[in-house]
Design goal:
alpha/beta
């Protein structure tokens, strides 16, 4: 038996706005479901994030608002510097700049339109 992946589900206020961000700013390919759209899968290489529309956007609470400096998703990469340069070039706002974290990863973070912190990290 083998576990073959994990797909965090992020609750979002607006599927189309979120798809635009993950596609255009982070380079994910997105599939949208529902009429009107209420769910999407954002995929890039072996990473998948699922996006589900929350009918009451005021109930959205990013993890960092509950626990200091905690992400909603942490995506492992093989070249953090290259991903950092790419997402900057694509216009993604950087939440925290790239650095060597004490837990053994070279990482940086972005924040999506709903305030979810998404980290990208490469094992040192």
């Amino acid at each position: 038996m083998t576990l073959t992946g994990i797909s965090p589900v992020l609750l979002v206020a607006d599927i189309e706005r979120s798809v635009e961000y993950y596609r255009d700013r982070l380079g994910f390919e997105c599939e949208v479901y529902g009429n009107p759209p209420d769910f999407a899968a954002a995929r890039r290489d072996d990473a998948t994030l699922l996006l589900a529309r929350c009918a009451d956007p005021e109930r959205l609470v990013p993890n960092w608002k509950i626990v200091h400096n905690i992400w909603n998703a942490y995506i492992r990469v093989d070249d953090a510097d290259a991903v950092y340069e790419e997402v900057q070039r694509r216009g993604a706002g950087i939440d925290y700049t790239i650095y060597d974290a004490p837990h053994g990863f070279r990482e940086f973070g972005v924040q999506d339109p709903d305030g979810h912190d998404i980290a990208f990290g490469q094992p040192l």
